[in-house]
């Protein structure tokens, strides 16, 4: 019986036979050459399929327990839901009782955006609801930015004082710029 390279066997001897053997897949040089480009490509394909099943509603790849993948998919979507809740609580408030189910249904079939974290996830879900025509008006209003008021132009305070007939407003505004 051969033990893994560099380990001690039950007889107390160290297995050094395959350590320097380039033909051995267990040897230092053999370990690199044993994995072919085709093997790496197949592993990458399997990993991509597993990731798609976990976060984007993809088909569970052969060799994986579909029930465990389903449970993990739900757990990952629930974690995303909590992040979106922290990022945009108005969304949950606006959807009310529909919030958890609506987000979970969406999250199990839509991957999280690559950048932007929970805020980007909230924005993507909001856009989905908007496209479906189910985004509550209260959420739409909460997301609408307040109108921006321009800063006063230089000399504004001088014109205010002149209009009010006062010389000073009590502020040291000698430069009159903002």
UniProtKB/TrEMBL annotation:
It comes from the Bacteria. Residues 1-44 are annotated as: Disordered. Residues 1-11, 18-33 have a biased composition (Low complexity). Residues 44-131 form the SCO6045-like C-terminal domain. InterPro entries: SCO6045-like_C (IPR058711). Pfam families: SCO6045_C. This is SCO6045-like C-terminal domain-containing protein. The lineage of its organism: Bacteria, Bacillati, Actinomycetota, Actinomycetes, Kitasatosporales.
